[in-house]
User: What shape does this take?
Amino acid sequence: DPVRFAEVLVVATPCPLLIATPVAFMGGMSSAAKLNVIIKDGGVLEVLARVRSAAFDKTGTLTQGKADVVDIHPSSRTATETLRLAAAAEQYSVHVFADPIVAAARAQQLELPAVTNADEVATNGVLAILAEGTVVRVGKPTFIEEATGPIDRPVLAAGETAVYVSVGEELAGVIILSDPIREQAAATVSRLRRAGVAEIAMVTGDVAPTAKSVAHAIGIDTVHAETTPQTKVEIVQGMRPRPVLMVGDGINDAPVLAAADVGIAMAGRGATVASESAAAVITSNDIARVADVAYVSRRTVQIALQSIWMGIIISVGLMLVAAFGYLPAVVGALLQEIVDLVAIVSALRALRAHTGTKRDRVRR
Ligand code: ADP
Ligand code: MG
Assistant: This one.
């Protein structure tokens, strides 16, 4: 019966399949944006929803990155001179420790020597040439040792980290900074575990003792310390199970953020090259957003699937009714539009995708 055939075709709508997913994903991206997480495209949410491993950078990501100079151990120069030289070089750095060192020098009203050339040696530190010709290095012990030969490393308390300063071939001194762990770091890690992330690791450029004490406090067991941008990439690509999420902030994290299945950049202190290469950017300097957005992504995918299935089931049901001759084509045409609308409205629930904890729902 050609009429019956037409009546069945009229309610056979593919729209829920076509439209539910993009609507849900736009909704999910909008939900994330309300949480100050900018997601670069919908596909990111889909991968994020399946993430099974996560790697975190330490300095500026798990720690606040609002460090303070707490002590200076003088070596060949006095404490004041060490700070003055370090600040002169750090003026040209975007590292999270640059600002506190410059601020400490300003607070003491030190006059900084003129610098003719300064280079940020990513992940290592800064190399500055002063107007009078001396070379100042500020950064990691291994970077300083390239100029000075082996040096002693001070024993640090929990929550402290050290920045080494050399002048010429001598160690000028060591600046001790407090770099407190973010309040939400431990909660974020455990929420990710609850969301199904099986493997969580720390991948940091900092030295092992500092890295381990932070990891221990947060509940991360696997620690990779003294990594370079390149070894960070190798470690993250070797992590199993996949997909792997990487969370980082500094220039040294830009390659690994691009290489991970999903990269999230912490850009609370302003956008850096890390935000360029990451798939998602947290603009609010709040690490809890990592777990929030993991929950939003899972909820978004769930809503997309529910909406598709709901549309398909209603549509197939209507096709059966029409096949038995109970659905005139005109009514069918109307109902077909309603099925699409139902799928869209259902997918729009992703606009309110929640974040897995009551506290966060209330805060929103
Ligand atoms: P993460 O990979 O955890 O973000 P980093 O690679 O930034 O850590 O390592 C932190 C260490 O790097 C600090 O303890 C410090 O010694 C050194 N460092 C690197 N660049 C600088 C810089 N510009 N100023 C001071 N310290 C630096
Ligand atoms: Mg960092």
